[in-house]
Amino acid sequence: MNSESPNGIEPEAQITVRNLTLAYGSFVLMRDLNFTVKRGEVFIIMGGSGCGKSTLLRNMIGLIEPTEGEVFYEKANFTRSDAEERRSFFRRFGVLYQSGGLWSSMTLAENVALPLEEYTDLSPVEIREIACLKLALVGLKGFEDYYPSQISGGMRTRLGLARAIALDPEVLFFDEPSAGLDPISSSRLDDLILALRDSLGATVVAVTHELPSIFAIGNNSIFLDSESKTAIASGDPKELLAHSQNAKVREFLTRGERRPGE
Amino acid sequence: MLFKILPVKEVQTQSDGAPGVSLETVGDATLVVQLSGAWRLQKNVTSASPVQKAIETSHIRSVRFDAKALSSWDSSILIFLTKVTELCRQQDIVTEREGLPKGIRRLLELAEIVPEQEGARQATDPRSFLAGVGTTTTGSYISLSEMLRFLGEVTLAFVQLVKMGARYRTADLFLIIQECGPQALPIVTLISFLVGVIMAFVGAVQLQQFGAQIYVADLVGIAVVREMGAMMTGIIMAGRTGAAFAAKLGTMKVTQEIDALITLGFSPLEFLVLPRVIALCLMMPLLCLYSDLMGVLGGAAVGLWMLDLSWTTYYHQTIHAITLTALFGGVFKSVIYGVLIALSGCLRGMQCGGSASAVGEAATSAVVTSIVFIVAACGALSVVFYIIGV
Predict the structure, then answer these.
(1) A103 and B263 in contact by Cβ < 8 A?
(2) Do A104 and B257 make contact, defined as CB atoms within 8 angstroms?
(3) Strand locations in chain A (E)
(4) Integer Rg of chain B from CA
(5) Among A20, B119, B131, B136, which is most exposed with the fewest C-beta within 10 angstroms?
């Protein structure tokens, strides 16, 4: 407790979530969520389908205003920030959306370039160079002038990743990054995410229920349970698999295998 | 049926009878349900009412099944069996399924393994007429306040644009201008010309009776320039561009493109709505002028070929009839219509839900909203023009 600063936020915390309640109208999805994501961590939000994983992520990036509670980035309060402050937060985010969220009327290069045009004073030539570099990083070299509808699903996920890292963000959010990918593409994507995390020094928050990905990339996690409407476990997924006493968590992490006697 | 022609199936159909159920009471408390024949979904689903009658009239404590005479089965037998099981459950009667084939037992177990989730079934009781009226009224109140909020947000975005320049891509603006300006010319030409022709034709038939056919030029000129040019352009653009705006923004919402803009710090209002409003504001007066011209030409065509008026006579008569005030009045109206179409289209697009059918609804609703607003604005502006004496 000595390491905590006056407002109760740990010094190495990148994201602090306090007493967050997620609700659609009067229907409460999750309540009293409290967790901290430390700098450089790969933090996994897991739980069964429909339990509010994506909603939690959307609350954390400001697409939905939380019903109650607050989200802090480092020591700054994100939930209570005004429009101008929001922009400075958004500058530090990279988000990869579940259905891509790729701008269909722009080419791949333009998709990656738009955030750069918005937040930097670089010349169009330099922006194009950076956009091409980011596309090359995710293995899309040569596809700069294609439109998102002309490339495959796996390539679109990688394009989303290229756009998410366009501004060298501090925090990367992934919403079901490997949904709809074959096992090999999915594991390559995991490698890519780890490589980018290491080289950019970014913190990663990922919503996923792909077990191989969870164990491959995650080193901290939170487990949401729709029945008790709150988080029932947290910690390194591998540790949870080895030591968690909670039957639901074990069942999830072992794909439904139960220990004898359960 | 086709399979009856095939010899292989013939053998099978001989052994297949119609689905049959016969009941037999064994001892004093056990009912045996004997199932026979071929149970197929194509034939009528066998009713469970004989079983119901049997278990309601006598004191049966358990029900057994005998499927020895059953030749083939599919989901139809499952429906029958679930009905029987449900009936027995209500009467506290034990059902023994040992006599059924393994496949049927397994499927019945699967259907029962997950109990119905409480509260999952939505209330379907019919609402009273008054409740319906009330819900619709409060709904329209909410929709009005949403409309006003959207209008306020767009106004703020415009203020932002004037103060420090808004953030949208100039390339996008030009693309939208091209889509809602030059590309609309063919349809505007066709409709306006034909409306001119129709008005002249209807007028000519009447005016010829008095030998006053020359006034067809006045009739068409004034009507087209004051009202019809702007109105026709407005309605064409509502159907063409307003719907396109709603569908485009709605799809962007479904595919999370708008979310991606927001988390990059772009305001969708500045990035998507402003260029569309600006483009229509710029293009509508031009299209309206063009439509005026086409309408007058349509009238002239009737005058030249049907009424044998000379080109110069028609031209001079038209020029004398149209005042500059009337022309500007029409053009001003068209700008207002343009704003209304762009706002309705974008509003419905931004309100769109998360599915393909929601996009369709957004497009429909955008057209309806813009046409309603155009006609309402037309009426209001006519009154205002009359009061200020234009």
Answers:
(1) no
(2) yes
(3) 13-24, 27-38, 42-47, 68-73, 76-77, 93-96, 171-175, 203-207, 220-225, 230-234
(4) 36
(5) B119
Q: Would you call A48 an interface residue with chain B, using a CB distance cutoff of 8 Å?
A: no
Q: Check whether B100 has a pLDDT greater than 80.
A: yes
Q: Do B264 and A115 touch (CB under 8 A)?
A: yes
Q: What is the pLDDT of residue B237?
A: 96
CB contact under 8 A, B264 and A103: no
Cβ-defined contact of B260 to A101 (cutoff 8 Å): yes
Angstroms from A99 CA to nearest CA on chain B = 6
Cβ of residue A78 closer than 8 Å to a chain B Cβ: no
Could you give the ipTM of this predicted complex? 0.81
The residue to which tokens 């502006």 are assigned: B381
Core vs surface per residue B17-30: b (16+ CB within 10 A) or e: eebebeeeeeeeeb
Residue B63 one-letter amino acid: V
CA distance A261 to B183: 72
Contact between A118 and B167 (Cβ < 8 Å): yes
Region class of B146: left (phi > 0), else alpha (psi between -120 and 50), else beta: alpha
Q: What is the pTM of this model?
A: 0.78
Query: How far from chain centre, in Å, is Cα B43?
Result: 37
Give the residue on B whose Cα is nearest the Cα of A167.
B264
pLDDT band at B2 (very low <50, low <70, confident <90, very high): very low
The domains found in chain B, sorted by start residue, are 2-113 (3.30.750.24), 149-387 (no CATH)
